[in-house]
Design brief:
522 residues, single chain, five-stranded parallel β-sheet, seven-stranded mixed β-sheet, globular
Length: 522
Amino acid sequence: MPTSLLLQVSPEVASNEAQLRDVVSKKIRVAAADIQHISIQKRSIDARQKSIKINLTLELFLVGEPYTQEAIRLPEYQNCVAAQEVIIIGAGPAGLFAALQLLELGIKPIVIERGKDVRGRRRDLKAINVDHLVNEDSNYCFGEGGAGTYSDGKLYTRSKKRGDVDRILKLLVGFGASPDILVDAHPHIGTNKLPQIIQDIREKIIEYGGQVLFETRVTDFVLKNNSIQGVVTQKGETILAQNVILATGHSARDIFELLAQKQMYIEAKPFALGVRAEHPQSLIDQIQYSCDLRGDYLPPAPYSIVKQVQGRGMYSFCMCPGGVIAPCATSPGEVVTNGWSPSKRDQATANSGIVIELKLEDFKPFAKFGALAGMEFQKSIEQKAWQLAGNSQKVPAQRLVDFTQSKISASIPKTSYVPGTTSVELGQVFPGFLTQILREGFVQFGKSMKGYNTNEAILHAPESRTSSPVRIPRNPDTLEHVQIKGLYPCGEGAGYAGGIISAAIDGEKCALQIGLSIQSAL
């Protein structure tokens, strides 16, 4: 039996196998030569004290104890060429992991994706960055892999109770992700690594008889007696199936509009909205690590901060150490920001969404839109940002201290946001109550993180796609839509997930429920 050990060591020791072995041998009073293998189970950084430590959870195998390197293997998928078919709308994490789960169950997935394959999306990302041209079907939000593919691949989740997080992580490792994601407290794949993993998942789906249809947008649902019968695409093609997983993501406004038009029950959902703040990474390192230089053994520092301001939560969201800010509009005439990091997180700047919790009452000016009131509220701010930026993808921007003092910044330095910036007093972007909360909240942030409030930090507006502004209610037992039999609202777009891992878990849950439904009908 291996020996379990909790250990706190310096970053240098944690990075050096020989030094770690020496420390462990002294700790357990066993000669280093008698330690056969050290397996790191969990790893996290403790930066609360001036001397930064790495917390390790280890399993130790001594010489003579049975030890075999565990190989991560993919499940046994079944060939489903001739099997019953299930339509999955959307090839993000919810859709792709639903498809893999269906293959395990011997059910054929037909994945319908409005955007391009993961490689083809790159040309459209270049177009929005360089030419300010938005492809409504292929962008940072839409396309194979979903929003997470080109906005970081962060895998951290607080949703431990929703399902088996380790299963999803192991599946990702099985498809090529680094085994480090099984160990790190805040696992991350990186935008440069994730596309190949997504491509390998798609190839596995096709290998076992599934279908993946790109550049195919769903424009209608085929319904009969409150049951789903299939979908209609923009090409006029009807694809039939008695079970449909709706996994279109938080930005598929046309789907929300279609649901409302067909009087399929949906409801407005609160979300969060604010700005994306960019600091020099070296400054965040100094604040978080209490040092002048980070050194070779620590990763670029992240931060997480939460404040209550005027009765609302204001907090950091999707923080990207060593990352860049990206233009994430999904339609012409709007500006949207998000952030991402490469796997090494080696860019010179750090960025984070700084957002405020919204309430349903905030959407009252858009009450005539019914369940789409939050979406229209969101849209109005994005369109205002577009106008203030001179009808371009240049983002309205302001130095942080200037914003708190209601001053237009005399100049904006070059930031990581490639389309460029326009100096704007950001109070013009948001309703007055949001501007007041943001200003007050940043003052509080500065008191908690000394050095955070600086004019070296640039605010970009808006950060508006934090989660879906719509919930598509479903039966908690069957996971079917409360009104339409055979329709399974799923993932972030339906309001049941908040990131790659929780979306993947929800996709699997919906697929398992369909499997139970099909089995009971036999």
